Every structure is written in structure tokens, then in C-alpha cells.
Amino acid sequence: MRRHVPLLATAVLVVALMGPSNARAGDAHLLPDLRQAPVGCAGGQTGDPAGCTDWDVCVVADAEAPNGACGSAGEAVRLRFTTAADNVGDGPLLIYGSRARADEPTMTARQAFQSSVDGKVPGSYAEAQNPIPATLYYEPAPSHTHWHLLDFEHFQLRTPDGRVVVTDRKTGFCLGDRYPLHDALPHRPDDPGTPEGALADYLRQNRCGHHAPEALEVAEGISVGYGDDYRYTVDFQWLDLTRVRSGVYDVLNVVNGDRSLVEKSYDNNTSSVAISLQWPGGAAQPPLRITSPPVVKLLRSCPGEATCARRAAGDALLDPLPSVVAVPG
């Protein structure tokens, strides 16, 4: 969105365009490091993630509704949970979207990097060094009405042996500095007089072209020491349990799963929780008509790990954990 560009004018660094292989070297850039926060925890929450309560089980009357009201009976059952991604790297995650004309339905995206030589931050799409296979599109839904970056995060329900049972229907993300982290990070932008401080001030207020379907440019991202979260009450923040049989499963949450965004490390991009699901009456199979929700228990939270159910099952006899039971929304 063109009116956003001047806000970053003091942070402009004119650089030659380069591909991802150049940026990965990191010799002239301060790279971000995206950390997938524990599943079902509020953004920035500290303490034992097994006690996080930003999740529930929701029975909805309309299976096609992106965010239907929860009730006791309906067409579909959803496991809703908050997702959050932190930037614990050396530089900001900064993404610019652009399109040539307003009649083009999507924007193409580039990733920009803060210079480690003089500390400046690129201030326009043309100065962003890394073309990424991602797009931004305008979401006209009443709860959004802004530009979304696709494929930033994904979530799945898996069996303990890794078979995918359900995948998400998440539409996209508007990234900004939504909460501060408690980590001690040397490159946190605490001085508003610096280029990265000015960028952080912008990202704290970023709404991704809110009510601007005509925008030709938009910028979004996450500063060092901040994170972006989507609460479990937001559209499509759920996995559909309607046809899932009783059992133990992993809920997997991954940020930057295709590694299209250049980072300092990809080792912390995944988190998971192990859950048990039991339909009423001890039934193994879901009922044809949903008259009451299944009982879902959180068995264990595994931040930074892609599997959790195997560990929970293996440790159950030796190290039992108090289960957290979902309260229907």
C-alpha cells in the first residue's frame, strides 16, 4: 500500500537484487529466526505449556462457516487453538507485497533483510532481496478486510506413526508485532530513533492494508523480540474432528514449512501437542449425527518437536501427566 512506504523512508537501503542462495549466507544480513510457539498457548505466554488453555472443542451448526457459534449439537466438531510465531533472530522478518495494477487479484512477495554493515532496513518492495513463492490476497470477510500472506503457518492432525488425518483450512496471515517476548535478545529494537526501531513502531500498528482492496503495495513482518498470534476464536483457527475416530493424536503446528523465507535457523519451526479424543459412550467411531462433543484431553505439549503422541504413550506408565480437558466453546 503506497501510503505505508514513507513510514519506512528513513530505513531505506538501496541494494542489488539477489536470490535466496545469496541471502542464506548471512554475511551481510541480520536474519530473522522464526520460532513456532507452543500449540494452544497465548502469544508470549511463559511457564509450563502443558497448562495453556487457549484451545477448546466447538460444535457448529454449519460445517462451512469459518467461525460459527459453538453449541451442543450441529454438523461439525472443531478443535480450535491459538497459533503464534516468535522472531528470536538477529534481524526483522520483513515482507513486501506488490502488484502493478489494482485489477490483479493478488500481490507477489519479496523478503527484505536488515544490513549487518550499517544496520539499515530496506524500505520498499524494489529493495527486497529474496523473491519468495508466496502471494498476498485481500480477504473481504467482515472479520478481516485486509491483505493476507498465504502459507505462513500450517497445522495438521496426525496419528502417532505420522499419518496425516486432517489438515487446516487457514486462509492467510497479517503479520505484525502483536506481543513482546521475554527472551534476552541483543538485536531487539528498543530505540525508536533507529531504522529498526522505526520499523518496529510501524509493525506494532500494522493492519496490512485494512479496508484498502485498491492497494498496490503492502508491508508486513515481525521485529526481533516480538511475535504474531492468531487467537483460537479467529476464522479457520481449527482442525475438523467430525469424522475422526477415537484415539491419541498429534496436533502439529509449523511456521515457514516450505522454508521459502530465509532464516538464521529452521530447527525451531515446529511444535506439537499430544491429545486423546473420545466420543461419547466410549464409541470408537464418530456418530452420524453430532448431539454432543467428544472429550478431548491434552496429554503433553512438545514445543520445538514434530512428534508428541509417541512420547506421551511411551512415558505414560512411568511419568503420568495431569490431563487438561477441553471445555466446549
Question: Key features?
Answer:
329 residues, mainly beta, six-stranded antiparallel β-sheet, 3 helices, 7% helix, disordered N terminus
Q: In words, what does this structure look like?
A:
- The chain is mainly β and 329 residues long.
- The chain has one domain (2-325).
- It is 7% helix and 33% strand.
- The strands form five sheets. A six-stranded antiparallel beta sheet has the order 13-12-18-19-20-21, with helices on one face. Strands 11-10-8-7-15 form a five-stranded antiparallel beta sheet, with no helix packed on it.
- It starts with 19 loop residues before the first helix and ends with a strand.
- Residues 1-26 and 316-323 have low confidence and may be disordered.
Q: What is the H-and-E element order?
A: HEEEEEEEEEEEEEEHEEEEEEHE
How far is the first residue's CA from the last residue's CA? 37 Å
Shape: globular
Protein structure class: mainly beta
Largest sheet: 6 strands, antiparallel
Short description:
By secondary structure, the chain is mainly β.
Topology readout:
Layout: H1 20-24, E1 29-30, E2 34-36, E3 55-60, E4 70-71, E5 76-81, E6 83-87, E7 93-98, E8 106-112, E9 114-115, E10 130-139, E11 146-149, E12 153-158, E13 164-167, E14 179-180, H2 195-204, E15 217-222, E16 226-230, E17 238-240, E18 247-255, E19 270-278, E20 295-302, H3 309-315, E21 324-325
Antiparallel strand pairs: 1-9, 2-6, 3-4, 3-5, 5-17, 6-16, 7-8, 7-15, 8-10, 10-11, 12-13, 12-18, 14-16, 18-19, 19-20, 20-21
